[in-house]
User: Fold DNA-(apurinic or apyrimidinic site) lyase from Rhodococcus globerulus.
Amino acid sequence: MPEGDTVWRTANALRTALNGKVLTTCDVRVPRYATVNLTGTRVDSVVSRGKHLLIRVGDASVHTHLKMEGAWQIYAPGERWHRPAHQARIILATEDAVAVGFSLGITEILDRNQEDSVVGHLGPDLLGPDWDSAVAEENLRGAGSEPIGVALLDQRVMAGLGNVYRNEICFLRGLHPRTPTDRVPDLAAVVDLSHRIVGANKSRHVRVTTGDTRPGRQTWVYGRRGKPCRRCGTRIREELLGPDQLTERQIFFCPSCQPLTRD
Assistant:
């Protein structure tokens, strides 16, 4: 499941493959941008902003978002792709590399001066040079009575957290995900943990929050419904939580280690 650390690693890989090189192929397989052709233009930079990717090519910016199923993969010219061609949304190639964006949730070509329209709403990037813990804490405090498990997924608060991290952060701080944010005793500690836990995983291909990289041991609660809590042995529960029914996602928690506090 792509989260900020996945996007950060993807940006690094794309940067290595494309930065400073002239595109020999630009094939955008999205009807709205099918006539866009950046061939012959140099790639100036690749940056990640939370879960968003920006590939800056001349005056254009290729904006993509992985959503749930998307991935960028890099191949040598002529190498067989690992995913079906019908899933390709965009292909950017140079003389020595082919970058293919598969099943991307968002693929659009913007004027570079329009980037703020797609990433300007984001809070401080947990893995970016703009990280500011004080601003993130202020943003989180602004969530008021909204459940902490909802506020942590709000990219306007801080950019980069996804469902795995929100569940693990809540467990590690002893917070039930439904706890109103304004009832959380130490929001600064939540922000600090968010920054540290994502930073610790940015160079790993396997996301680990327990410190144990062995299969089946990497998370405290996420994906562990019905299994014993690693701390107290109580069975992990799974429910749905979101700002509305359309955006509800799974929460995992230990009823003993994470008691619900409403007042």
Notes: The longest helix spans residues 4-18.
